[in-house]
Write a structure and sequence with these properties.
There is one protein chain. This protein is α/β, with parallel strands linked by helices. It folds into 2 domains: 145 residues, Rossmann fold (3-Layer(aba) Sandwich); 189 residues, Dehydroquinate synthase-like, alpha domain (Up-down Bundle). The chain has a 6-stranded parallel β-sheet with strand order 1-8-5-4-2-3, with helices on both faces. It has a two-stranded antiparallel ribbon with strand order 6-7. Strand 4, helix 4 and strand 5 form a beta-alpha-beta unit. Helix 5 runs antiparallel to helix 6, helix 6 packs antiparallel against helix 7 and helix 12 crosses helix 13. The chain binds nicotinamide-adenine-dinucleotide. The site of nicotinamide-adenine-dinucleotide has 30 residues, from helix 4, strand 6, helix 5 and helix 9.
């Protein structure tokens, strides 16, 4: 075995069904007394359940979380936290809400308890993003990483089918790219492969008619999302994440769906340059060609397959390619403009990747 470095990040994680009931104890364990509860406007009603669990520990509910954390929203939430004398934040929701919690933690140092309701994996990373004047700035800071994560499978049942599958594919994308990261190590690879395997098992069950199986699927998916989020927070990402960041940030495409659609094509692009990673991805999904396995999983589970179906215009493809190539970043295969333009075209059309690609 080659030499390697593995850095562990201290976070307390509770996993199960009904774990939300332990939220109050977790606030107490942090030595906190007044929590600012964060959510999106769409999850305001569900958040009331969380507020009820917190009881007198809930200082207030801030229901203004939005995709890509606009700086104005972050400022408003930080001011609310200071005015209320909050000594911790509870981020209840997907990557958008957890991102808002991170923005508060970065400036105020308040500890964050994340209660994820999607499979974005953001709760396991110190990666943050803030959008100012339409430009999203991202960075990594250990202060942004939530101190405690409460995974409660019951909170994921309300996520609509298409979004559930897309979000699960978003998680798979973290694990797939970690397998060919420059700084990958055997521990990260182990978690990545297990994460892909759990999600590969889970996603096809979401839309089935058997409630027991759907329940088992939800549990596996959340476990997989935890592992995939952990690897995202541990090693560097490559072409796929760069393309999705560009498409989401510059063309306002939905985050999870964009990941889900682009992933098979990014894997096809990198296939020959990263054969070991491809074998591990394919093995986790039942064998065959990695890019095709990922495409077939998304399609059979009910995800959208084409960028033209999530709001991109064909006339945007040249600019997307140019933006994605503007600054260099690590990737197993050299960044070739013509081939990346073709990758984007294939993702736009939603074609199944061919084996030789
Ligand atoms: N920093 C990181 O490590 C990291 C990782 C992944 C994603 N992200 C960021 O997270 C954002 C995307 O997060 P996301 O894909 O989780 O989507 P999201 O948080 O934007 O949620 C999408 C929609 O689904 C709703 N929703 C969430 N959970 C629900 C549930 N259980 N039931 C019903 N509705 C529910 C939300 O209210 C929202 O309207 C992007 O801004 C992305 O950049 C960050």
């Amino acid at each position: 075995m080659k030499d390697f470095i593995y850095t562990g990040h201290a976070q307390r994680v509770l996993f199960g069904s009904g774990t939300l009931a332990r939220l109050g104890d977790e606030v107490d364990a942090l030595g906190a007394k007044r929590a600012l509860l964060l959510c999106t406007p769409g999850q305001r009603e569900e958040a009331q359940r969380v507020a009820d669990v917190l009881g007198p520990r809930c200082a207030s509910v801030f229901a203004g979380a939005m995709m890509h954390v606009p700086i104005e929203v972050a400022r408003e939430a930080r001011i609310a936290a200071a005015r209320l004398g909050a000594d911790c934040a509870v981020a209840f929701g997907g990557g958008s809400t957890i991102g808002l919690g991170k923005a508060i933690a970065l400036e105020s140092g308040l500890p964050v308890i994340a209660v994820p309701t999607t499979y974005s994996g953001s709760e396991m990373t110190g990666i943050y993003g803030l959008t100012e004047a339409g430009v999203k700035r991202t960075g990594i800071d250990p202060r942004a990483r939530p101190r405690t994560v409460i995974y409660d499978v019951e909170l994921t049942h309300s996520l609509p089918l298409e979004m559930s599958v897309a979000s699960g594919m978003n998680a798979i994308a973290h694990a797939a790219e970690s397998l060919y990261a420059r700084d990958v190590n055997p521990i990260v690879a182990l978690m990545a492969e297990e994460g892909i395997r759990a999600l590969g098992r889970a996603l096809p069950l979401f839309g089935g008619s058997d409630p027991a199986q759907a329940l088992a699927g939800r549990s596996d998916a959340l476990y997989g999302a935890w592992l995939c989020g952990t690897v995202l927070g541990s090693v560097g990402m490559s072409l796929h994440h760069k393309l999705c960041h560009t498409l989401g940030g510059s063309f306002n495409l939905p985050h999870a769906q964009t990941h889900s659609i682009v992933l098979p094509h990014a894997l096809a692009y990198n296939a020959e340059a990263a054969p070991e990673a491809m074998s591990r991805i394919a093995a986790a999904l039942g064998g065959g060609n990695a890019a095709q396995c990922v495409y077939d999983l998304a399609g059979s589970a009910g995800a959208l397959l084409a960028l033209k179906d999530v709001g991109l215009r064909e006339s945007d493809l040249d600019r997307a390619c140019e933006l994605a190539l503007r600054t260099p970043y690590p990737n197993p295969r050299r960044l070739e403009a013509h081939a990346i333009r073709q990758l984007l075209q294939d993702a736009y059309d939603g074609v199944r990747p061919s084996v030789h690609a």
